[in-house]
């Protein structure tokens, strides 16, 4: 505090501060009444009183002119603050991020995934989105929101490992250098995680085209742990890991807490109904089931990949296929579309690309479960296929679960393709018309 | 700002700690209980530096616990509105940056960063002036002014600004 003596500005400023200090302490003490607190208050007041005395004594030695200037400055500063009224664009710990004023009502959207206690208002979000958008479009980047479970990896609780999978316990990779391995045992969370093959290459290449977010229905500790496995250096997902704790709606994922214009966001997820409001941004992923518990959870009775000691193919697995699609979308968006960058919409690119997959197919369905039919039809139509209900010479594909139906027999007679509904699902996942012969129907009717 | 003050606390001690180490047990329990906590009045208790006195214990009926009134000296840290603090940047994003001064979390929004500094994303997000001479990124040390504080049971939140004279980066981690 010896500094105060050499500058009148400081001394007066500090005096002001000491007064403020008193004020701040009084304000707080009014809310607390315990003996312990009262004791401390005296202590504090003593301290500040002493200081005050010191400041006063220093000020007496200064000339009166400088004090006048200081006062003038203070008044000026105060008036300029009052002139522009703060709009409170957001809050941190219930204080306005702009003026520091305490805000009573909790408004705006919480951004807990960035920092605890941070909230932003809609106008501020859209302002940030707009400035961001321009910058990213300029550097040819879009946004990509990635799901974790069954999309990038598969996790099981250790106790749910089936006896045939127990060999995995000894095959886990070391946690010291996670960038090399793909199978990890997280002892403290009682979990075992398998990364999907190709995921590291996928993230590396995708990060050049996209600003990436993780958005999972898992809780935050789990999400952060997985982010650490996928991105040990924190290059891709730095403060962009969103968990179910952060969402604004229960059991729904929303783009409202993603800093991307909806027209520039792609979503990669295996669960369509989590994204009710953003289906047009969604690229549906084929689920990755490495562990038996995960297969059972979705009602499959087959052996898991781990049980058969196999895995998805690295080179032409689901992630590799989707990466190709992403590249295609990216290049279409930036190089082929015309008009102003800001007006382009990635959702249109997505739907037009999807519409080309089965564009030359005319499909008729035969003996499909009534519950499944509308979905299949919708999916096929989205991929550009024409769906008919009556037989017609233009039909190219008959989709059936049974080779014995009239339409199926007609298809065989007329040398049309007779395929299983899985043919449509596969085309939907891989964004490519699949070879029909892999999805043929056997003559016997015990096919499921 | 730091203060060295005397505080008092009623410590409840389990009978198993009675014996010739009672005093040491009491002190170590005190340290465990109060260091790192914070209160609205005093801010963070950084460290217990000494014991002033320990009063007579009162035996609680039924439990056997004994309550000792303990007066202790400690160093507390409490940020004030208007105070100038030096802090280390922990996270930079497009909303602004977060910094820490010891246990205190400070947020400086991009409204309160000088207008000539612009956000640059990438591996190491940062705010940089147009000529590139000043850069704020993770681990930079900044001098900032507190414009708002709020104290929770366990945390203190502050809003800071560097949009004022003599505020901003005081060292650059890349040049060290």
Automatic annotation (TrEMBL), chain A:
GO cellular component: nucleus
Keywords: Hydrolase, Nucleus
Skewed-composition ranges (Low complexity): 24-33
PROSITE patterns to which the protein is assigned, alphabetical: BRCT, FCP1
Span of domain BRCT: 362-441
Domain spans labelled FCP1 homology: 137-309
Gene3D superfamilies, A to Z: BRCT domain, HAD superfamily/HAD-like
Superkingdom of the source species: Eukaryota
Record's subcellular location: Nucleus
Its EC number(s): 3.1.3.16
Any matching Pfam family: BRCT
Protein known as: RNA polymerase II C-terminal domain phosphatase-like
InterPro entries recorded: BRCT_dom (IPR001357), BRCT_dom_sf (IPR036420), Fcp1 (IPR039189), FCP1_dom (IPR004274), FCP1_euk (IPR011947), HAD-like_sf (IPR036412), HAD_sf (IPR023214)
Reaction(s) catalysed (UniProt annotation): O-phospho-L-threonyl-[protein] + H2O = L-threonyl-[protein] + phosphate; O-phospho-L-seryl-[protein] + H2O = L-seryl-[protein] + phosphate
Listed GO MF terms: RNA polymerase II CTD heptapeptide repeat phosphatase activity
Compositional bias segments (type: Basic and acidic residues): 39-49
Species whose genome carries this gene: Pisum sativum
Chain residue ranges for the region called Disordered: 24-66
Function: This promotes the activity of RNA polymerase II.
First-listed, main subcellular location of the protein, grouped into a coarse class: nucleus
TrEMBL record, chain B:
Domain RNA polymerase Rpb7-like N-terminal, residue spans: 8-64
UniProt domain S1 motif: residue ranges: 79-156
Protein name as annotated: DNA-directed RNA polymerase subunit
GO molecular function, one term: single-stranded DNA binding
Signal peptide: none
Family affiliation: Belongs to the eukaryotic RPB7/RPC8 RNA polymerase subunit family.
InterPro entries: NA-bd_OB-fold, RNA_pol_Rpb7-like_N_sf, Rpb7-like, Rpb7-like_N, S1_domain
Locations listed in the record: Nucleus
CDD domains in UniProt: RNAP_II_Rpb7_N, S1_RNAPII_Rpb7
UniProt entry keywords in alphabetical sequence: DNA-directed RNA polymerase, Nucleus, Transcription
Main location (coarse class): nucleus
Organism classification: Eukaryota, Viridiplantae, Streptophyta, Embryophyta, Tracheophyta
Gene3D superfamilies referenced in this protein's UniProt entry, alphabetically: Nucleic acid-binding proteins, RNA polymerase Rpb7-like, N-terminal domain
Function: DNA-dependent RNA polymerase which catalyzes the transcription of DNA into RNA using the four ribonucleoside triphosphates as substrates.
């Amino acid at each position: 505090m010896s500094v105060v003596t050499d500058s009148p500005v400081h001394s007066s400023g500090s005096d002001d501060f000491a007064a403020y200090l008193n004020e701040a302490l009084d304000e707080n003490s009014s809310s607390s009444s315990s003996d312990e607190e009262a004791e401390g208050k005296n202590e504090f007041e003593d301290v500040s009183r002493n200081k005050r005395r010191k400041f006063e004594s220093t000020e007496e030695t200064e000339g009166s002119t400088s004090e006048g200037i200081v006062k003038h400055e203070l008044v000026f500063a105060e008036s300029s603050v009052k002139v522009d009224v703060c709009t409170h664009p957001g809050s941190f710990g219930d204080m306005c991020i702009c003026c520091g004023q305490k805000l009573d009502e909790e408004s705006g959207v919480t951004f807990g995934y960035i920092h605890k206690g941070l909230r932003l208002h809609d106008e501020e979000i859209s302002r940030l989105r707009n400035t961001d958008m321009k910058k990213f479009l300029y550097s040819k980047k879009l946004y990509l929101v990635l799901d974790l479970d069954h999309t990038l990896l598969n996790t099981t609780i250790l106790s749910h490992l089936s006896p045939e999978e127990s060999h995995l316990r000894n095959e886990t990779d070391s946690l010291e250098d996670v960038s090399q391995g793909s199978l990890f045992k997280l002892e403290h969370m009682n979990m075992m995680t398998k990364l999907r093959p190709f995921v590291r290459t996928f993230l590396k290449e995708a990060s050049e085209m996209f600003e990436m977010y993780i958005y999972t229905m898992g809780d935050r500790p789990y999400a952060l742990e997985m982010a650490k496995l996928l991105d040990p250096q924190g290059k891709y997902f730095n403060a962009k890991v969103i968990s179910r704790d952060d969402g604004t709606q229960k059991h729904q994922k929303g783009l409202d807490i993603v800093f991307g214009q909806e027209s520039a966001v792609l979503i990669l997820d295996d669960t369509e109904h989590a994204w009710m409001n953003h289906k047009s941004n969604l690229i549906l992923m084929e689920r990755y089931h490495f562990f038996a518990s995960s297969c059972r959870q979705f009602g499959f009775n087959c052996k898991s990949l781990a049980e058969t000691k196999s895995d998805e193919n690295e080179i032409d697995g689901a992630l590799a296929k989707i990466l190709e699609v992403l590249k295609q979308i990216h290049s279409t968006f930036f190089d082929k579309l015309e008009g102003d960058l800001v007006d382009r919409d990635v959702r249109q690119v997505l739907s037009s690309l999807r519409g080309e997959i089965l564009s030359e197919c005319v499909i008729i369905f035969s003996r499909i479960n009534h519950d499944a039919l509308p979905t299949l039809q919708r999916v096929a139509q989205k991929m550009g296929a024409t769906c008919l209900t009556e037989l017609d010479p233009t039909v190219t594909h008959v989709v059936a679960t049974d080779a014995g139906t009239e339409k199926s027999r007609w298809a065989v007679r007329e040398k049309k393709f007779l395929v299983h509904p899985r043919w449509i699902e596969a085309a939907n996942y891989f964004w490519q018309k699949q070879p029909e012969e892999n999805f043929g129907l056997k003559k016997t009717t015990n096919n499921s | 700002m730091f203060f060295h003050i005397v505080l008092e606390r009623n410590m409840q001690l389990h009978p198993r700690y009675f014996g010739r180490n009672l005093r040491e047990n009491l002190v170590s329990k005190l340290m465990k209980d109060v260091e790192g906590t914070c209160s609205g009045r005093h801010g963070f208790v950084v460290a217990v530096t000494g014991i002033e006195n320990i009063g007579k214990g009162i035996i609680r009926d039924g439990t056997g616990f004994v309550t000792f009134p303990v007066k202790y000296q400690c160093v507390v840290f409490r940020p004030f509105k208007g105070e100038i603090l030096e802090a280390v940047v922990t996270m930079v994003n497009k909303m602004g940056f977060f910094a820490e001064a010891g246990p205190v979390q400070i947020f400086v929004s991009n409204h309160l960063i000088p207008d000539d500094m612009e956000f640059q994303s990438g591996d190491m997000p940062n705010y940089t002036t147009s000529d590139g001479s000043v850069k704020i990124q993770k681990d930079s040390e900044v001098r900032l002014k507190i414009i708002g504080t709020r104290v929770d049971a366990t945390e203190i939140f502050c809003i800071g600004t560097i949009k004022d004279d003599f505020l901003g980066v005081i060292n650059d981690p890349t040049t060290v």
